[in-house]
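Suppose a classmate hands you a notebook page containing two proteins, each written out with its sequence and a corresponding row of structure tokens. How would you begin to make sense of it? This section walks through that situation. The first entry is reproduced here exactly as it would appear on such a page.
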Amino acid sequence: MRAIIQRVTKASVTVGEEQISSIGRGLCVMLGISAEDTQRDADYLIRKILNLRLFQDENGRAWSKSVMDLDYEVLCVSQFTLQCILKANKPDFHAAMPAELAQPFYDSILESMRSVYKPELIKDGKFGAYMQVHIQNDGPVTIELTSPTGPTDPRLVCC
């Protein structure tokens, strides 16, 4: 499982002309689920996302506070393209979990996040939809995380 985590002052997801969700200060998380991911991978990333110290404290000390410490929001967006493997110049997405399995797994990740943190502060896009994600980066601060178990099939390991 891969996650791109961006510290934001605000972010929103729009499908067509409809805004699906939006947040103020917090994290925008693009989440790519691989065919080999398990609950262990999900638990690792949930813990990291909610506890990463990407914000300053009240005294201005950088890298001191997490979203949970500050009651900030999290916007999660499912993004299978994070499981891309390049074949020459063409992207291949076979490492991604098939949508019919990924959607319930993704939903369970959101529910786990909501059970650990304040449910009203965990937002998401629309699974499988073509979305416009509007992000106002703060910093910018962008962190890439890969769950430690990672893929075991050597064909799925990208550069």
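The notebook's second entry, a different protein, reads as follows.
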Amino acid sequence: MTANRPTPRAGVLDIAAYVPGKSSAPGVAKVFKLSSNESPLGPSPKAIEAYREIAGHLQDYPDGAATDLREAIGRAYGLDPSRIVCGAGSDDGDGG
């Protein structure tokens, strides 16, 4: 690595690159990649309705603190919303 770039931990560069599932197969009209969370059933009717309800506000930037979501989770499970952390993925918000 160069002086301007950090050096990865030992072994990181030895990890094989991810190989995505096949997008097509001979004799198959449509391949559903279940490991990529693709569904042959299409979206849930509830998801479609939720989209329709919010479609006029898709340009709005979401609340980064997820206040409404944390309050709803707190109500549903009897928890203090200030002690609930919401993030965008498994490595989001872990501090490093």
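A careful reader of the second entry would note: The CA atoms of residues 18 and 36 lie 12 Å apart.
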